[in-house]
Structures are given as structure tokens and as C-alpha cells.
Amino acid sequence: MTDPRLAHATEFGRMYSRSLSQPPEVPSITTVIAQEAQDMTGWSGHMAATELIRDTRLSGALGSPGELRSLARHAAAAAERFRDAAAARGDRVHHYAEQVARSVLGHSADPDAARAVLAQHGETRFADRFDQWWQLYGVKPIAAEVTVWNHTVGYAGTLDLVAEIGGRTCILDFKTKGVGRDGRAKPVRDSVVMQLVAGMRAEEVLVDPVSGTWEPWPYRGDSGEMPLLLAVAVSETEVVPVQAQAAGLRAHWRKFWALRQVWEHSREVTEQGHALRTLGPPPAAAAEVA
């Protein structure tokens, strides 16, 4: 996604500051969610094996331990390369979505330039499917790339879009997805519910990053109608919006709160430095040896 101006890369993950002139204070929503360990060893191994099998240099390297080690090192990084390429593609698709929304809102935007960038990478079908979904669902943007802050729990984040759809206020998060063997968009992970509910539970919204001006966040759902929380999977073949079920929001919010505590304690442990030190023998034992 587009880098928010107040977001900073730190040794403790992505963190947010209150203004452009202040240091980072709280973790981002995605940094908090990342505290939950994800076992990707099986997928990484599969990617490495597939990369090695498909490498045209493999047959020529047989019998040469040095060349085989070189191919193995290259294959071992296949998952990392795939992840980085997917992230870059996601940034381009998110940028296009942002430009479309900003254009409708009358802000400075250039959807044509964003589409041209996608075309350079052979990704215009993402934009085509997005445009079809936008028209079909009658999306009326309220705000795009919205930076929000929660003081009580201590986190911040940037939401992709707040919009009106079918007469309801919606908080949306776009997820760029590949296509499965069935030709359908791959499903969105359930962890997106934590991301959406954390956005809804924000307390302030950024007005001016230079002065650090913030206003109360109006979409908490504390009074009146609660906004719909939507994750929108954007693929080359279709766009699939899914709604976070209201019955599970409290549980996902509690899980997010717990992961925020994990982040805090992990930072405290890291700041303490080395947790272990070498211990020599007691003086009496040392004297006996001497």
C-alpha cells in the first residue's frame, strides 16, 4: 500500500508518529497483527523445490557440487523473491485504487498514470476488474488512505478506503490476490478482520501531518449504525468483497489487544539488551582448582 507520511520503519516494526516533526510512538496495525507467528516453512520448501526443478541449469550442474550449491542457494530464496514481487504488485494495485477514489473526491490524482504503470507490468486486468466492481457496487468514496490513531491501546494505521455502498458506510481494505487453479481469486485470510476492527476502533483521524492535527474518528460504531467492515480481494479475473461478521468482531478485537501486549513486552525485552551472561565458577571452587 502507499506509504503513509507518518509511518516509519524501525527495529520494532513499522511505527507511527503524531506529526512529521515527531518521532514514532506506536506500532502500526499490521505490525501488531504480525506478532502472531505464521508457519510458512512448508510453503517456503515447496517454492524452493519448484524453483530448483524448473531451473534449466540443473542438468548441467549435475556432478558439480559447487554449481549445485549455487543453484540450491538461488532456489532457497524463491519464497522471498515471490513475496517481494507480490508486495510490489500489491502496491501498484493499491495505488490505482487510491487514485480512482481520490479522483472521484476531487483531490489531486492521476488514475491514468497509475493504470499505465500497471500496463508496464502486464497487470491492467487488475484495474479492469476493479473498475467493474466499483461501478457494479456503486462505490461512493468518503475518504482514501485514512491515517487513524488509538491512544487507549496504543496503535495507528492507514485504512485504504471509507466509502458509502448501498446506503451504508463501509471501511474497506483491498487485498491483491492471485488466481487459483479454479480461475477464482484466492481467499482473504481471516486475520484481515483484526485489521478492519482495529481501524474501526480508532479514536482519531489525521487532518494535517505537518502540524500534527487530528480530529475524533467518527466511525467507531459507539453510537448509531456500525459501519460495514469489508475486505476486497482484487484479482485479474474477479473482485470478491467479503464482510467481517459482526458476531466475531469482539473476539478478533480481543485477539488484536493481546497481540499489542505481545509487541510491547517484546520491545521491552529487546531494549534490555542481552538476557544472559556468562557465569564463572564460585571463588572457592576456583581456588581449589588452582
TrEMBL record:
Domain of life from the UniProt record: Bacteria
Record protein name field: Cytochrome
Lineage: Bacteria, Bacillati, Actinomycetota, Actinomycetes, Micrococcales
